[in-house]
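Format notes (please read before filing issues)

Several people have asked whether sequences and structure tokens are stored in separate files. They are not. Every record keeps both together, in the order shown below: the sequence lines, then the token lines. Line labels are part of the format and must not be stripped during preprocessing.
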Amino acid sequence: MTFFGAAKAAEREDFMEFFNSAIDVLQTLVIALGGGLCVWGGINLLEGYGQDNPASKSQGVKQFMAD
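Then the structure lines:
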């Protein structure tokens, strides 16, 4: 009887290993996406400072202060 219990435990362990692997991949993707958005936002702020339009500079400061 313990053989069937051991097989079921092994199946459960394999499933949890797959689940943990999927969570690790998703975590990496979310971190990469957040980093990309951070860089993109920084570039947008710098583009606003580079223009001669004072309104775009003001908008960049507002966005920076909002975060």
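For reference, the curators noted about this record: The radius of gyration is 24 Å. Residues 2-50 form the longest helix (49 residues).
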